[in-house]
Amino acid sequence: MTDASIRVRFAPSPTGYLHVGGARTALFNWLFARRHGGVFVLRIEDTDVERSSEEMVSGILDGLRWLGIDWDEGPEVGGPHGPYFQSKRLERYRAAAERLVGEEHAYYCYCNPDELKAKREAAEGGEGWRYDRTCLALTPEEVAAREGARLPRAIRVRVPEGATSFTDLVRGEITIDHAHMEDFVILRSDGHPTYHLSVVVDDIDMRITHVVRGEDHISNTPKQVLLYNALDHPLPAFAHVPLILGPDKRRLSKRHGATSVTEYQRQGYLPEAMVNFLALLGWSPGDDRELFTRDELVAAFGLEGISGGNAVFNPDKLEWFNNQHIMRMATDELAGRLEPLVREAGLWHDDLRDTQRAWWLSLVDLLKPRLKRLPDVVEQARPFLSDVLAYDEAAVHKYLTPQMAGPLAELAATLAATTPFDAATLEPVIRGFAEARALKAATLIHATRVAVTGKAASPGMFDTLALLGRERSVARVRRGAAMAAASVPRQT
RNA sequence: GCCGGUAUCGUCUAGGGGUUAGGACACGUGGUUCUCAGCCACGGAACCGGGGUUCGAAUCCCCGUACCGGUACCA
Predict the structure, then answer these.
(1) ipTM, 2 dp
(2) B8 closest protein residue (CA to C1')
């Protein structure tokens, strides 16, 4: 088949928000489609009416959009093989199920679900029990009686003797003996299809060529293969990707902390970083590259690179990716993403958009390598954006000592006279100033830092002063001098 | 229980019949330096166990073990 004919899909069930596992599956499908110039379909599997909801659908769409995973067919964009909500395709499933009954690949089952459940539980340990085919053995009279009594009926597949094999692109050939497969329900008595039916009917209708999904579906695949065969339709290619686990190697769940993409968005992760990180969870380009742009991922992606084992979600590495992507992002773009956060913190003023724009960009540049997450900008930019300094008590005590009062006061005067007020000019001036007073430059700089930022850590002092400007620098150093003079020497 | 899958540093992984088993995160130590971050260098750290095949197994095969998944009128 040609590349352009490749069609893949992501088919989430809207019973929760988009979690990282689903996002990773969506990403693999999307990367595969984009790599081959194929089509990426988004389909909502909302046949479980009890657990599905509209809000969840929009949450999932938002999550995908945030990650930059766009779909060629699906909700909101439509497409030639819609509708893309399973709840709107019920007739398709019913027709398929009835067809299978007509062709004797399936049969009606009038068994009461509660009774079946009881039988199941009554069986040895409740495990391994298979449907006893009560309804397959029904005589025409018995069937007529049940129909006459208007008993609700489900449709079950008549699983033949034998075994089913299929080739998984990640794991090779997989075979399962039908002895371990019961006559599974494909249409519930309420007329809704079960997953096995709807997924197969839709994948056929939507011309899906490659089914790329989580490993949790691997055991279900033989059932679906049976359905493809019964429906007389060729199989798509299957690729089952490993699952994402928590640090305890258990399947990632809420108790491991944040599991929804929205949560990571909220915490200040870049979608670029999330995508990069997720792509490398269970997939490898085959070489030593780690940092990828979206386009580079598209160019490098292939199903062959998917590994077999499950992968533990490592938040430390995600954070590293985030910092790396922040550093690589164009300053003006980063500034744009930072703005809402700064605004929210009450530190924004509109001059930063026009007259002060260059200054704001310089600040962002300075902070770039220091941001692990976007919100880190608030505390780090605060000394630059506000004149209300929150002095770190320990830092004040350590560096704004009485003996620094004099030097700081003099430094303020020196700064007031330094021109131009830029880092290159300030550095020799300040170092010379310290030397002239037999002070270690470091000592003076530390004191100046606390005076000017209130903290023990900040960007380089000369850059900091330059960015602050002469006026604010002088005022803050003066104030620092006063604080130093007023501080009580450590008693020992 | 039964069925299926997986197994390389703590974690993500590359590799794969003969390699000093490579990279990344994290960690540790240095360096750059005014602090922090970043950056650079260095370091510790792995082929689940047992059999077999082979001149040679971490790699191929079998068994075991562990873990994950499935075993529904959930998806």
Answers:
(1) 0.95
(2) A309
Paired tokens of A452: 């000017």
Residue with token string 């992760």: A269
Distance linking the first and last C-alpha atoms of chain A:
82
**Angle ∠(A127,A128,A131) on CA atoms, nearest 5:** 115
Tell me the whole-structure pTM to 2 decimals: 0.93
Give the pairing of strands A244-245 and A311-312.
parallel
pLDDT band at A126; cut points 50, 70, 90: low
- Whether A296 sits with its Cβ under 7 A from any strand B atom: the answer reads no
Predicted local confidence at residue A489, as pLDDT: 61
Cα–Cα dist A300/A286, whole Å: 9
Residue A468 has pLDDT above 60, yes or no: yes
Q: Token pair of A239, please?
A: 């690729």
Please state, in angstroms and rounded to a whole number, the distance separating the CA atoms of residues A234 and A287.
35
Q: State the catalytic residue, choosing from A88, A117, A254, A440.
A: A254
Residue A55 carries which side chain, given as an amino acid letter?
Answer: E
Residues A215 and A308 sit within 8 Å (Cβ to Cβ) = no
- Angle formed by the axes of helices A195-205 and A221-230, nearest 10°: 60
C-alpha angle with apex A91: A88 to A92, nearest 5 degrees? 95
As a whole number of angstroms, the distance between CA A242 and CA A168 comes to 12
Out of A115-119, A269-273, A282-286, A324-328, least confident range: A115-119
How far apart, in whole angstroms, are the C-alpha atoms of residue A395 and residue A264? 33
Distance A304 CA to B55 C1' (A): 34
User: Do you know the residue count of chain A?
Assistant: 492
Confidence of residue A492 (pLDDT cuts 50, 70, 90): very low
Give the pair of three-digit tokens for residue A378.
Answer: 């608030």
Nearest C-alpha neighbor of A175 from the set A221, A112, A122: A221
Task: Indicate the DSSP class of residue A207.
Answer: T
